[in-house]
Specification:
By secondary structure, this protein is mainly alpha-helical. The chain contains seven helices and no strands.
Length: 137
């Protein structure tokens, strides 16, 4: 049976109860590496926060092997690919994962070592997909 990451869906739901969750993620992420703030210099954060909210859900489904999320994740990967409109060096994805996990730790009262590992595992899947499409874009 395929892992559906139901525990992550539940954790993410607990995080989204805090309306500032996504904003706090960006606060942490933008400070995580000197190259990152410049990538967001022209960003409309109201739109970016909504995209991130949907993107995390798609990433969880993608990690679970959902065919329904494949197109969404591939489109996001193309946007962030080397020739996309918002290219992201694959070397920066660990900062994204670290920032996300850090904010989940601060937000989800049920976060523990097992759940932390599962978040890293699932988000690693989507980051590998993005990295794999970086050159192909």
């Amino acid at each position: 049976m395929t892992d559906q990451y139901e525990d992550l869906q539940q954790s993410y739901g607990r995080c989204l109860r805090d309306k500032a969750f996504i904003s706090r993620f960006y606060d942490v992420f933008l400070k995580s590496h000197p190259s990152i703030p410049a990538m967001f210099a022209e960003t409309d954060f109201s739109k970016q926060r909504m995209a991130m909210r949907r993107g995390i859900s798609a990433a969880i489904f993608h990690a679970a092997g959902s065919t329904l999320s494949r197109r969404t994740v591939e489109q996001m990967a193309d946007v962030h690919g080397g020739k996309g409109r918002c290219p992201v060096d694959p070397a920066l994805y660990p900062y994204w994962i670290d920032s996300l996990v850090r904010v989940i730790e601060q937000t989800d009262p049920e976060m523990d070592d097992r759940l932390r590992m599962r978040w890293r595992q699932a988000m690693g899947v989507v980051c590998e997909t993005f990295s794999g499409r970086y050159e192909a874009a």
